[in-house]
């Protein structure tokens, strides 16, 4: 009888140990999983914070006031504006008006930047020299995947090359009543090469919502004799996003460097 009781006790003890081991394994697995998730979240946060503006830029647009903050309040007469006149580009001291308003769409108060000139960009970069600047006439503003756009500036050859997946194509009407082919693209990358130097990745976007990257300006903003670029890179049709690249800030063998961007949302 004692042998039977002892055997039952031994079996119970062994199963208890086995169950405890399982519980410990499950707990350890859960901790490991949570650790991985947190690590991925932290990595994503770091990636999102990688780029910080070296100086602020603005475009003539309506800006929402959120938590009593509005980017327009930073704008003053020390800023420099890039504007177009008679097909030429100029840098001048910022000349603007700020108008208060209200957005029925979002329910937010807004500040609007108003300018008498055709201003492309406002920059908090007082060191820029004002006056006429050299620029290129842009005949084609979109560089679709598998396409290239080449031009020469001060005896240097520049080539922009697009890469990515084209999902579909359709004919659309532009603002100036022209018909063009619009392509739905994902995993887009835009590369730049100068002279015989290897091409470098300029910008990348995973997807677009009825939008695409546009070359808005190519010219010498910073006065170093090399091309600078301004791109429109709206990720959706309810956004105005502009990115500025300057050659004078380039490093590590690159031709230009991304120095600032502004993204304005006007969704409801």
Automatic annotation (TrEMBL):
<dbReference type="InterPro" id="IPR028994">
    <property type="entry name" value="Integrin_alpha_N"/>
</dbReference>
<protein>
    <recommendedName>
        <fullName>VCBS repeat-containing protein</fullName>
    </recommendedName>
</protein>
<keyword id="KW-0732">Signal</keyword>
<feature type="signal peptide">
    <location>
        <begin position="1"/>
        <end position="21"/>
    </location>
</feature>
């Amino acid at each position: 009888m004692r042998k039977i009781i002892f055997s039952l006790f031994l079996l119970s003890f062994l199963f208890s140990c086995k169950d405890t081991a399982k519980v410990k394994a499950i707990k350890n697995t859960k901790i490991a999983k949570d650790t991985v998730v947190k690590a991925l979240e932290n990595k994503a946060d770091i990636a999102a914070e990688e780029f910080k503006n070296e100086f602020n830029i603005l475009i003539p647009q309506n800006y929402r006031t959120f938590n009593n903050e509005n980017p327009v309040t930073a704008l003053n007469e020390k800023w420099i504006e890039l504007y177009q006149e008679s097909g030429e580009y100029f840098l001048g001291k910022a000349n603007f008006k700020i108008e208060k308003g209200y957005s029925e769409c979002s329910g937010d108060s807004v500040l609007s930047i108003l300018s008498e000139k055709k201003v492309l960009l406002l920059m908090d970069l007082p060191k820029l020299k004002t006056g006429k600047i050299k620029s290129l006439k842009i005949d084609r503003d979109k560089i679709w995947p598998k396409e290239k756009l080449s031009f020469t500036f001060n005896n240097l050859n520049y080539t922009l090359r697009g890469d990515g997946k084209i999902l579909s194509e359709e004919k659309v009407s532009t603002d100036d009543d022209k018909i063009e082919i619009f392509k739905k693209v994902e995993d887009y990358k835009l590369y730049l090469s100068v002279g015989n130097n290897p091409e470098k990745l300029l910008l990348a976007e995973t997807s677009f919502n009825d939008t695409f990257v546009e070359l808005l300006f190519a010219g010498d903003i910073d006065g170093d004799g090399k091309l600078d670029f301004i791109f429109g890179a709206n990720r959706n049709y309810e956004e105005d996003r502009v990115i500025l690249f300057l050659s004078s800030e380039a490093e590590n063998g690159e031709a230009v460097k991304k120095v600032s961007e502004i993204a304005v949302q006007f969704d409801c």
